[in-house]
């Protein structure tokens, strides 16, 4: 059902009203600026624990024995977030259920890549599996570690998962799984995933489409720029690179053509010069004391996700909730690491939500 | 036999005014109830969801539910008022035994039908509107308590829409009276 007509507006709540309200309450529970101020005053990680217990996190660290470690903080924070997300996902009906499945796919891709890389470096399968992202877990994950070529990877494992379609479209080159190939696999998978997700939100129509399109288009542009910058000095041919760029977004197709020819940062800057807001990210990027390109991308992403909550009766809030919360966990970790390593002057370099 | 050129050669002549009058009454209560139920359900789903993490919103936001319920009450009041206008049609007895209603009875039948549509549909859309605003009200209140009263003002305006229909319905049927009453 598309949610763009008046009827869509007045029937959205049948299936999604309860969960939308729930997602919004989770978003309202995000840490405020005052919370961050308090957290930054902490001298030790245990103080951090104390401060967090007065927020929505509650006593999620209460039963941790001994001194708190940042890895434990990250794990528990993610467990809580995944709990909230799964709680909503398991109650969702179509098309929301499929929408939330799509959100999980990107974490599955991360896990696949993480497992292959780890296996390549001869890491123990058990340890690797325990470090996988909890949101991207799938049944046949354990068998991933036996694959040595891309074809094997597909035949034995991924054919059973929702990612199978992305592999077929990606038409991977034959060859062993080495460092370079894995990066290409990740990028092609992600491209196929983004395009599929984009098509899906477009088919939903209405506010969902307009909100999600902006978010996903930015994500696509950001990936295109990052791939370009990361490919400087590698042996990737123009044709190979072309397969990695998502085929939608603001930059597609003219901007992508320019990016393909770019050989240094200045040429990238020239390529995106006509696209707002992308051009602003390149202002004083290499200047001293300025934020890095990635920081600016993240800040803009957070901005888009905040905007998403300004509209009601659409599915984008479920995506935005997860992404804002993910950023919050990154912020928490940043502060925790700064405390643990006694780098207080670096502490303010995170992206606050409000 | 004709009493008015309006009714001449008109198939509607064959339909008894009772049918129109009762259809009008049915539409009044039926559509109003649909509107009220729709509104309560729109607000209710959001309210229940918002109240999980922020339980304080649950009592205050019953106001939105009450606004929706008021729409149903308009419907039942109007249905009763309309029903009071029904009486026994005396009319003119034709030689073949058929009783031909007076022109006033035809008018009353249509007036009640039209009045019922006015009240019913305005209450249906009023109910949906109040429900949509009420849903936003619950979410806004959960996020920021100061917003509650502000959004409630919007709810009040939305709820006035139903009253327009009620007023028009009363005026429309003011001179209607079916049969000897």
UniProtKB/TrEMBL annotation, chain A:
Cellular component per GO?
proton-transporting V-type ATPase, V0 domain
Keywords, ordered alphabetically:
Hydrogen ion transport, Ion transport, Transport
What InterPro entries does the annotation carry?
A: ATPase_csu/dsu_sf, ATPase_V0-cplx_csu/dsu, ATPase_V0-cplx_dsu, V-type_ATPase_csu/dsu, V-type_ATPase_csu/dsu_dom_3
Annotated Pfam families: vATP-synt_AC39 (PF01992)
Q: Name one GO molecular function term.
A: proton-transporting ATPase activity, rotational mechanism
List the SUPFAM superfamilies.
V-type ATP synthase subunit C
**What family does this chain come from, according to its entry?**
Belongs to the V-ATPase V0D/AC39 subunit family.
Known partners and oligomeric status: V-ATPase is a heteromultimeric enzyme made up of two complexes: the ATP-hydrolytic V1 complex and the proton translocation V0 complex.
Protein function: Subunit of the V0 complex of vacuolar(H+)-ATPase (V-ATPase), a multisubunit enzyme composed of a peripheral complex (V1) that hydrolyzes ATP and a membrane integral complex (V0) that translocates protons. V-ATPase is responsible for acidifying and maintaining the pH of intracellular compartments and in some cell types, is targeted to the plasma membrane, where it is responsible for acidifying the extracellular environment.
Name of the protein this chain belongs to: V-type proton ATPase subunit
TrEMBL record, chain B:
Positions of transmembrane segments: 20-41, 62-82, 110-135, 147-171
Q: Which residues form the V-ATPase proteolipid subunit C-like domain?
A: 23-82, 113-171
Under the GO molecular function aspect, what terms does this record hold? proton-transporting ATPase activity, rotational mechanism
Key words of the record: Hydrogen ion transport, Ion transport, Membrane, Transmembrane, Transmembrane helix, Transport
- GO CC annotations, alphabetized: proton-transporting V-type ATPase, V0 domain
Localisation per UniProt entry: Membrane
Q: CDD domains, per this entry?
A: ATP-synt_Vo_c_ATP6F_rpt1, ATP-synt_Vo_c_ATP6F_rpt2
Database matches in Pfam families: ATP-synt_C
Q: Membrane topology type, per the record? A: Multi-pass membrane protein
Concerning its family, UniProt says: Belongs to the V-ATPase proteolipid subunit family.
Protein name per its UniProtKB record = V-type and A-type ATPase superfamily H+-or Na+-translocating f-type
């Amino acid at each position: 059902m598309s949610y763009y007509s008046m009827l869509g507006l007045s029937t959205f709540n049948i299936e999604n009203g309860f969960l939308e309200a729930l997602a919004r309450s989770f978003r309202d529970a995000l840490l405020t600026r005052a919370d961050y101020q308090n957290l930054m005053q902490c001298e030790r990680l245990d103080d951090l624990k104390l401060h967090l217990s007065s927020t929505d996190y509650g006593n999620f660290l209460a039963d941790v024995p001994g001194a708190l470690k940042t890895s434990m903080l990250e794990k528990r924070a993610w467990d809580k977030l995944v709990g909230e997300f799964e709680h909503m996902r398991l109650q969702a009906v179509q098309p929301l259920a499929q929408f939330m499945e799509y959100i999980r796919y990107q974490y599955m891709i991360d896990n696949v890549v993480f497992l292959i890389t780890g296996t390549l470096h001869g890491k123990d399968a058990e340890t690797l599996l325990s470090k996988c992202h909890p949101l991207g877990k799938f049944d046949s994950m354990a068998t991933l570690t036996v694959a040595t070529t891309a074809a094997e990877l597909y035949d034995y494992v991924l054919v059973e998962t929702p990612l199978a379609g992305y592999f077929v479209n990606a038409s991977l080159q034959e060859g062993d799984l080495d460092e370079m190939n894995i990066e290409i696999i990740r990028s092609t998978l992600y491209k196929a995933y983004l395009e599929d997700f984009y098509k899906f939100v477009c088919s939903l129509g209405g506010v969902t489409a307009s909100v999600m399109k902006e978010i996903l288009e930015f994500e696509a542009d950001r990936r295109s720029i990052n791939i370009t910058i990361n490919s400087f000095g590698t042996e990737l041919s123009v044709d190979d690179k072309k397969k990695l760029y998502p085929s939608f977004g603001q930059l597609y197709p003219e901007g992508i053509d320019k990016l393909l020819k770019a050989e240094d940062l200045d040429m990238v800057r020239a390529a995106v010069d006509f696209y707002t807001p992308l051009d602003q990210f390149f202002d004083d990027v290499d200047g001293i004391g300025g934020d890095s390109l990635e920081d600016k991308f993240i800040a803009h992403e957070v901005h888009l996700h905040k905007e998403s909550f300004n509209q009601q009766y659409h599915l984008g809030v479920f995506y935005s909730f997860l992404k804002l919360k993910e950023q919050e966990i990154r912020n928490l970790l940043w502060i925790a690491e700064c405390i643990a390593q006694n780098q207080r002057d670096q502490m303010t370099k995170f992206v606050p939500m409000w | 036999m004709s009493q008015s050129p309006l009714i001449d050669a008109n198939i509607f002549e064959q339909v008894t005014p009772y049918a129109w009058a009762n259809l009008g009454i049915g539409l009044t209560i039926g559509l109003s109830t649909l509107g009220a139920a729709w509104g309560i359900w729109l607000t209710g789903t959001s309210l229940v969801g918002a109240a999980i993490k922020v339980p304080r919103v649950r009592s205050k936001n019953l106001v939105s539910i009450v606004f929706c319920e008021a729409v149903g009450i308009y419907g039942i009041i109007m249905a009763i008022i309309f029903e009071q206008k029904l009486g026994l049609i005396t009319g003119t007895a034709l030689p073949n035994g058929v009783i031909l209603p007076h022109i006033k009875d035809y008018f009353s039948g249509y007036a009640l039908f039209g009045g019922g549509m006015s009240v019913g549909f305005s209450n249906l859309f009023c109910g949906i509107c109040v429900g949509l605003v009420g849903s936003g009200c619950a979410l806004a209140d959960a996020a920021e308590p100061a917003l509650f009263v502000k959004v409630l003002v919007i709810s009040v305006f939305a709820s006035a829409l139903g009253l327009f229909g009620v007023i028009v319905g009363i005026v429309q049927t003011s001179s209607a009276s079916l049969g000897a009453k």
